[in-house]
Amino acid sequence: MTEELLGQNNLQSEGVEPAPYEPQSATPESTLPTTEVTPDAAEPSDNESIGASDMDADPESADEGSGEMTQEEDKSKTETDKRRKSGYKRGEIFEATILEVSPMSVIVELDERGEGFVGLIPSRELERMNKGSLEELKVGGKIYVYVVNTGDNRGNVILSYNRAQEELDWHNAEQHRKDRSVYDGTIAGYNKGGLIVRFGRLRGFVPQSQISEDRKVRLGGDTPEDLWSQMVKEAIAVKVIEVDRARNRLILSERAAARETRESRKARLIEELKLNEVRTGRVVSLEDFGAFVDIGGAEGLIHLTELSWGHVTHPKQLLKVGEEVQVEIINIDPEAKRIGLSLKSQLSDPWDVVASNYAQGQLVMAEITKMTKFGVFAQLVDAPEVEGLIHISELSEQRVTHPKEVIKIGDKVTLRIVKIDVAERRLGLSLKKVNSTEYLDSDMDFMYGAY
Fold it and tell me: Contacts for 9-16 with beta carbons within 8 Å, 24 or more apart?
């Protein structure tokens, strides 16, 4: 029968299903919102009534001129009177059992009113329902319905499935506001002021001021499309901060949920992570000691020493906030809830090049990068990720009290490799031995070999 409904009405899916509702007591008035509404769109036409036989017949033409009620008319009048006296109120929500499903209507029995109290969900209501909702309409199934009209001109109690779900979602939103609980939703759209998030069948609004700091760093551009379009369909955790049913206003805050969500996600992520695992992350902040990277709901730290094989004084030399990077998990501390990451492990090790391309006694070009009392550090021109130390005793044949007497930062000079220790990643360089006769033979071999 669901397939027939779909074919008759040419329905389109809205793509978002309401959260299931669990009633808290048997008395709907005490637990569910009761709203007085005007039965406009859901009001049935004159030919809509309970039962297929009533829809094709004209009650005013039956037994015309007889002046007496037939047995069927008397039975119909009794049922009509029963419905009119049932005490329904507009805006009430009931759990109901589906008795009959057709392309034109759905007949249900209102469980809490007892046997024989039935209502009708009209065709226009069915046309507005999505595929998922239609598939729930099966004989014997339980659904919630909203009373739109307590009795039309034929005595039918007109009901709405969609309105019931919407009212239950408003009730659920109010409960989230009172409990201050986190709601996990999906970004459905945006406008110039912020994001639209589905809350069941409702559309909640997250103003830009209530966006989390992590999301704000991703903002870029001047138009709403530039700011928000890439976030559509992303998961988002929010808290309900305002519910105004009369104004159809539901305000949500990602910022209020961020801290609680971040801690819980981090705990779950730490349980899932494995050492040496490689993950894709996004840089969220840069500090003097390293960079914080979001690797899927939790942040890990790339320490300054794990950013590059070369010398780095600040992460901003290599990274920028919002950049996507590949990192390796190198440390997990469940108790402290800390995650250590490495960026340089995903890069080729320059010391592999040193081991294969350089030898002790070889002449190299290098740039002076740092100066200390005991010597200077120089960066190889052909392998800038590798730095070597020129000890103060290797600067000159003459006595030197401070390296600045001989050289300055930024100088590019020819140096001789006097020590290579790949295992310890140490490279010893010398300025005073560049022209030393000690290396004359090796220099000659290199020259002739080069040619």
Answer: 9/103, 9/123, 9/126, 9/127, 11/127, 11/129, 11/130, 11/131, 11/134, 12/130, 12/131, 13/130, 13/131, 13/132, 14/130, 15/130, 16/186, 16/188, 16/198, 16/200, 16/201
Residue 158 parent element (H or E): strand 158-160
Ramachandran area for residue 306 (φ above 0: left; ψ -120 to 50: alpha; else beta): alpha
Cβ neighbours around 364 below 10 Å, total = 19
CA distance 269 to 263: 10
Q: By the 8 A CB rule, do 360 and 418 touch?
A: yes
Burial of 74 by CB count in 10 Å (0-12 exposed, 13-18 middle, 19+ buried)?
exposed
pLDDT digits (tens, 9 = 90+) for 351-383: 888 888 888 888 999 999 999 999 999 989 888
Which domains does the chain show, CATH number per domain?
2-53+72-166 (2.40.50.140), 180-259 (2.40.50.140), 273-346 (2.40.50.140), 350-450 (2.40.50.140)
User: Quick one: which of 199, 119, 189 has its CA closest to 154?
Assistant: 119
Q: What is the pTM of this model?
A: 0.45
Strands (E), 22-137: 93-101, 105-110, 118-122
| DSSP classification of residue 315 | G
Which residues, 6+ apart, have CB-to-CB distance to 262 below 8 Å?
A: 297, 298, 299
CB within 8 A of 143, min separation 6: which ones? 95, 96, 98, 108, 136, 137, 161, 164
Closest CA to 342 of 324, 326, 327: 327
Residue with tokens 């300025």: 431
Query: Measured between alpha carbons, how far is 449 from 451 in angstroms, rounded to an integer?
Result: 5
Q: What is the pLDDT of residues 381-416, one digit of tens each?
A: 888 888 899 999 999 988 989 999 999 999 999 999
Q: Are 204 and 198 in contact (CB under 8 A)?
A: yes
Pairing label, strands 387-391, 426-430: parallel
| Pairing status of strand 278-287 against strand 290-294 | antiparallel
